[in-house]
Specification:
This protein is mostly helical. The protein has one domain. Helix content is about 60%, strand content about 5%. Helix 1 packs antiparallel against helix 3, helix 3 runs parallel beside helix 8 and helix 7 runs antiparallel to helix 8.
Length: about 250
Amino acid sequence: MPPGHQMQQHPRQLGPPAPPQRPPAPPARPPAPAPRRSRPLPGLGLVLTLLGLVVQVLSLTVLPLASLGGPGAAASMPEVWRAATDEGTHGFGGWYLVIFSYPLAALGVLLALVSVLESVALKMIWGGLAVLGLGILILRYGFGPFAELVGSDPGGLHFTTQEITIATVAAAALVIVVFLLRTAMSTFRRVAGLILLALGGVHLAAVSDLSRASITEGLSIGAYGPALGYLLTAAAAFIGPGRLLRF
C-alpha cells in the first residue's frame, strides 16, 4: 500500500434499511349527514276521492234535496226517500231514488278508492258487493214474475217495462263487473272513471225526472251534489295514485 494512502472505511449498516417517511395523514373528515327521506303528500287522486266522499255524504244525508210542500219546505234525501217509498215508485226518478241512489253512491266511492290505492283486496271487495247487488236485481226483476206463477192459476206471464229495463241493465252491468275483475289495474282505472262519469249523468237524469213527479215541488242544491261527487271520484280514478309533491 503506498505511503500516505489512507483506506476509506464505510460504516457498517446494522439491521434492515429504515423505511421512507410517509407524509402525515390528512385530518379525518366529519361524517356526512344521513340523506333526508322525502315524505310523500297524499296523492291528488286520494284527495279528490275523499272530497267526493264528503260531498256524497252531505248530499245524501243533510243537504236539502227537494221541496215537498211549498216554499221553505225543503227536505233532505232521507225524507224524500221515505215520501217516495210511501207513495210508491213511479217513473225513472222514483225508481232511481228508492233503489239505486244509496247503493250506487257507496259503490262509486269504493270504486274510486280501488283506483287511487290500486288495492287488489279492495278490488275484490268491490267486485263481490257489485255482483251481489246485481244478482239480487236480476233475481227480483228478471225472475220474479216466474216465481209468482208457482202455486197459482196464472192468466199469463207479464213483465212490466220497468222490470225488463232493470233486469237488462243489471245483466249488462254484471258482465262489465266480471270483465273489470279480470283486467289489469291500469285498464281498471280508466274504465272505472268512465263508469263514474256515467253514474253522474244517470243521477242528473233521475233528479230531472224526479222534479216532475207529484211528490216534489222543485229541486234544491242537494239534488246536484251527488253528480259533483261522481265527477270528483271520476277525476280521481283517471289520475290514479299520483303524488302531489315531496318535501
